Amino acid sequence: MTILIFIIVLAVLILVHEFGHFIAAKKSGIRVDEFGIGFPPRLLTLFNWRDTKFSLNAIPFGGFVKIYGENPLEQPSSEEEKNRHFSHKPKIIQAWVLSAGVFFNVLFAWLLISFGFMSGLPMPAKDNLSVSDARLVITSVLPDSPSQIAGLKPGDVVLNATFQENFLEEVNPEALSEFINKSDGVMTLTLLRGQERLEKEIEPTLGLVEDRRAIGISMGMIGTLRLPPHLAFWEGGKTTVSLLGAVAVGLVTFLSQAVLGQADLSQVAGPVGIVGLVGDATNLGFIYLLQFTAFISLNLAIINLLPFPALDGGRLLFLLIEALKGSPIKPQVAGALNAIGFFLLILLMVVITVNDIARLF
């Protein structure tokens, strides 16, 4: 079931991206020959609409848009075709069509996050936000800590804690931290994970926190924030911008470390790792899955903007070079660079996937 949800999420995000290219091309007067749901081989043609064939294909991982003239070897044979040819449009129009997929991924994330605020989004209990039903939630688990060994996960709700005859009288971060510090043996945490009630035995240890016993978790009071539509879209927009910045900084940091040979692949998830994360989000609830989908959509947007051949950012870079030099890049050169870029991306995906699988054992 988790794999099916992952396929659906990935397909939706890719289709949203391609739909952005499709709408931008259509609105710019460029002919779109095909909008494919899934990847070839083609199973059937669903319908034709305004010179565009909508097809259903065998490989269900997303889709594609075939824009007339996007392939520089595809030259028009008449003045009418020239007017609807991608490469014969002004550079600003070409740039808009190339970047529209990224824009739609960001827009889609904004809509999902805004819907989350309208439906009720988990948020830290703060004085400036009117959250309700605040509960003590584990926000992170330290690797190789007693908590990780015991099986605690981010998102677990702490209901109670017991040690011998003692129990947690107030359920909040400060009280639980003090309770852990005073527990000099195996204690029991009662948790809620999704709809499942769990009991985990953990022995606090010294050394994780200075002069205190600890179990290796961060925690906070998390409640539900529900907003009316106009405020939900405002908060959704601010959250989207904030997440975009965080994703961009994280990616730039990783790439700079990779150049210096210091990158930690254990912090990067490929398809196998994302399947596990999708499963975790699904177990926490539908709203969590939607917010995770929004986060992946923003990641796809930032990655696609990288100035690397075969990505939208690489094609935008080619467009900038053409504008500066006043003439098009030779189709053979552009094709070769895109092929090399695609091969390197596939190689990177294989390496990350192998690393994902290795972490399972």
How does this model look, in words?
This protein has 361 residues and is an alpha+beta fold. The two termini are 22 Å apart. Helix 1 crosses helix 7 (271-284). The strands form four sheets. It has a four-stranded antiparallel beta sheet. Strands 3-11-4 form a three-stranded antiparallel beta sheet. Strands 1-2 form a two-stranded antiparallel sheet. The protein folds into two domains: 2-120 and 245-359, no CATH class; 132-225, Pdz3 Domain (Roll), CATH 2.30.42. It contains ten helices and eleven strands.
Number of helices: 10
The shape is elongated
Distance N to C terminus: 22 Å
Provide the structure class.
alpha+beta
Major sheet strand order? 6-5-7-8
What is the strand and helix layout of this fold?
Layout: H1 2-27, E1 32-49, E2 52-67, H2 79-83, H3 91-119, E3 121-124, E4 132-141, H4 146-150, E5 157-163, E6 166-167, H5 173-182, E7 187-193, E8 196-202, E9 205-209, E10 212-214, E11 217-225, H6 229-259, H7 271-284, H8 286-304, H9 312-325, H10 331-359
Antiparallel strand pairs: 1-2, 3-11, 4-11, 5-6, 5-7, 7-8, 9-10
Helix pairs in contact: 1-3, 1-7, 3-6, 3-8, 3-9, 6-8, 7-8
